[in-house]
Amino acid sequence: MDTNIWRPILYLIGFMAFAGINAAYLGWCERKGAGRIQRRTGPMEVGFQGLLQPLADGLKLMSKQLLVPDGVDSILFRVAPILAMIPALTSMAVIPFAGNVQARAVELSVLLIFALASIGMMAVLLGGWASGNKYSLISAARSVSQNLAYEIPMLVTVITIVMLTGSMNLEEIAAAQQGGFWNWNIFPVASHSLAQAIIMPVSFIIFFICSVAETNRAPFDMAEAESELIAGHMTEYGSMGFGLFMMGEYLNMVVGACLITILFLGGWDGPLGLSGGIWWFLVKIYLLLFTVIWVRWTYPRTQIYKLLNLSWKILIPFSLVNLLLTAAFIKVF
Amino acid sequence: MSVPVQCRHDETFVLNLGPQHPATHGVLRVKLTMDGEYIVKAEPVLGYIHRMHEKMAEDGNFAQFMPNTARMDYLHALAYNHGYCLAVERAAGIEVPERAEYIRVITVEMNRLTSHLLWWAAFLLDLGGFSPLLYAFDDREQILDLLERITGSRLTYCYFRFGGVYNDIDDEFIAGTYAFIKRLRSRLPRLYHDLVTGNIILIKRLKGIGMLSKEQARRYGCTGPVARGSGINYDVRKNEPYSVYPEFDFDVPVYNECDSMARYMVRMDEIEQSMRIIEQALDKLPDGPVRAKVPKILKPAAGDYWASVETARGNLGHRLVCDGKKNPYKLKLRSPTFSNLSCFGEVAEGMLLADALAFMGSLDLVIPEIDR
Known about the structure:
Number of domains of chain B: 1
Radius of gyration of chain B: 21 Å
Oligomer: heterodimer
CATH class of chain B: Mainly Alpha
Order of helices and strands of chain A: HHHHHHHHHHH
Strand order of the largest sheet of chain B: 1-2-3
Structural class of chain A: mainly alpha
CATH topology of chain B: Cytochrome-c3 Hydrogenase, chain B
CATH architecture of chain B: Orthogonal Bundle
Strand content of chain B: 5-15%
Number of helices of chain A: 11
Order of helices and strands of chain B: EEEHHHHHEEHHHHHHEEEHHHH
Shape of chain A: globular
Number of strands of chain A: 0
Helix content of chain A: 55-70%
CATH superfamily of chain B: Cytochrome-c3 Hydrogenase, chain B
Helix content of chain B: 40-55%
Structural class of chain B: alpha+beta
Strand content of chain A: under 5%
Distance between the termini of chain A: 45 Å
Number of domains of chain A: 1
């Protein structure tokens, strides 16, 4: 009984710390990565290799006045940055980092994470609406249509995974993929039929594109679009309001990477049958995060209507076909 | 993307793009009437950086206006130097030594390279690509270092003099320029074309977007890469040759697609053509003086003179009216960007905001040159 009370509390503190460190230090990683890609050094001044830069940035943002401009909806304006951060933090609680390393085991954790992700989208909508700025308003409208378009293929893809595993519990989905990369959902040669192994990489690509779009990252950062909409929903925010939006974005990236790792890359399972553990999980999510950063600093931004066309005309039909084929293969084999 | 069928005017809103907006690169303000994300009406508003350069020309003597020329188009300052020198030299009947003409062509073309490289960087920034900025600045920095050695400045050059140039170029400059051209030739296909020109997102955003028809380009007086991207084969260096340009073998890239991609490709090809001109000029560089003997205070005969040069943005004309005194009676500039921008309102109508900004980027605007 004793352990049952303390376990969730300790784990929650641990995950909060993990989330906080990630939210701060992914910014540093991104700046360093961008620096390397652009043939410069990135932050170097504060601490060794600029390692204290996130701390300095945080202090700077916190010491600034929380400015609420005239003509904004003052309640929603204050609520929006909090809404950007909280759902992402909450989702961390149900993510299994390794077998039994999970703050709260929820039977329908897949559903919970997607519900929370939708609340995160509300932050952009409310922030953009409450700012009373036309650029922010356009950004809010864009983000709604974008999230709506990309949640559908994402959920349909998740349904294929759920059908394969027969569970909506993230831990069970990961546990079903143990024992080498040939069991992972991205290329399940051993555990499922060969036909399935051909379909799943497509699902993986669809899911990856959708998660980049859902987290508002370049080349799909239509809501932020600093050269068109001047950072869109964040235009009117300063100090920690802006800081929370940024941290929320990085946390969403982490949650997205965790989801991809669990759904497709076998969770904490080691490749080639090496003994699994939390380190494999971390290696996988950081590889995914690096890919996302790499993509951002390589590609120009797409256009909002091209983005929506990509989802409605390509990703959704493909994911639906995937779903049907998966259902058929499960029935046949 | 098709234009919305019907737009009710009570459902539009006005969006002020600028004067401080990252995509307008300076203090251009565009008053946009929007229907959602579609532009119903676009109206450029100028005058935020008017400094009365033309009036200043009337107040000082001829030489005193020289530094002002670089403050208008700060990205291709040497072409402005050149245009003004040409006008005054025609008025005063000054002969320029051949070596000086060659040096003028070399430095102007190098300056054109910096201008196109910077345009490329800023254009990609408009489209949301960050890294190309740093790659282009890396190359641009090499040219600036070379030019700084002989002109003494890096951006607002005042290098040309009536009857020649201020400084002779030396062997180190020549060797450095050859080395730079070799370097840029090796970098162009990999860093510029493979990474950016062939990028699917870039192609999708530029192909067929921002259609400026040949007729429109003519009507608005567009020149330079904007006109050449619309199929108008007009380059002052070829059509109204000045300086020693007729002695060089170079092509004028012309594209008939009329879209943003065509304007992009024209500039990318011009980078290669400029390198060809520089190489030929360095190969043929004659010996001799770099400055003719010219009186300190010029008093050209009364008359009306015209000189136009090809800047990175198009046809720059200087109209110089003299009345026999030591200062110009009137100096009127015909700047290329003003005409190139004029078409924005008509073309942007019915476009999406993001496409309109990409179109604006492809016009290569330098605002201080519009306002002067």
